[in-house]
């Protein structure tokens, strides 16, 4: 078990004990909410892990390393940025996929470019939420101003990673 999992489990147990001490009914209600969340999220997580595993099985590792691996340069950054911008879904689906890519050999720069582009330009979010609520003019200005950030973030992370890895 890794440290972050142990800390989260300890925090959950401590919180449960604190809530139970104050109100057993509230603790029971909290556990019911936990069960509901598990029922809602588990199918998404299973689908995301399945996609991540199948991606590893279908896409040759050599291809990933050649196009997006450490030292792939601007090409890897642009591919990461492009994929991040068009890949639909939320964190529950994205992070298993990006972890799978990282295990296959995606470099730190392309990975950061992917994550930054997904955060800034998620096509699904822009179309479904930003344009209807903010209007196309505001969204166009926001995208234009932040367009190079994923590339820049990936490039800087690659430089820092190389300096720390020496």
Task: Give an account of the 3D structure.
By secondary structure, the chain is mainly alpha-helical. The protein folds into two domains: 1-58; 59-166, no CATH class. The chain has nine helices and no strands. The model has no long low-confidence stretch (mean pLDDT 90).
- What structural category do the secondary elements indicate? mainly alpha
Query: Element order, helices and strands?
Result: HHHHHHHHH
Report the span from N to C terminus. Answer: 29 Å
How can the largest sheet be summarized? none
What is the number of strand segments? 0
Report the total helices: 9
What is the total number of structural domains? 2
Helix content: over 70%
Strand composition percent: under 5%
How large is the radius of gyration?
A: 20 Å
**Which overall shape is indicated by the principal axes computed on the Cα atoms?**
globular
């Amino acid at each position: 078990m890794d440290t972050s999992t142990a800390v989260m489990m300890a925090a959950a147990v401590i919180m449960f004990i604190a809530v139970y001490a104050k109100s057993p009914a509230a603790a029971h209600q909290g556990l019911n909410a936990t069960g509901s969340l598990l029922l809602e999220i588990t199918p998404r997580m299973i689908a995301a892990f399945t996609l991540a595993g199948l991606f590893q099985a279908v896409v040759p590792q050599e291809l990933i390393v050649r196009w997006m691996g450490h030292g792939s340069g601007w090409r890897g950054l642009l591919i990461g940025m492009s994929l991040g911008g068009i890949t639909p879904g939320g964190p529950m689906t994205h992070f298993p996929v990006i972890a799978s890519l990282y295990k296959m050999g995606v470099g730190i720069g392309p990975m950061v470019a992917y994550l930054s582009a997904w955060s800034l330009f998620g096509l699904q979010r822009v179309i479904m939420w930003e344009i209807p609520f903010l209007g196309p003019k505001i969204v166009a200005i926001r995208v234009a101003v932040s367009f190079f950030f994923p590339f820049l973030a990936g490039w800087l992370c690659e430089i820092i990673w190389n300096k720390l890895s020496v």
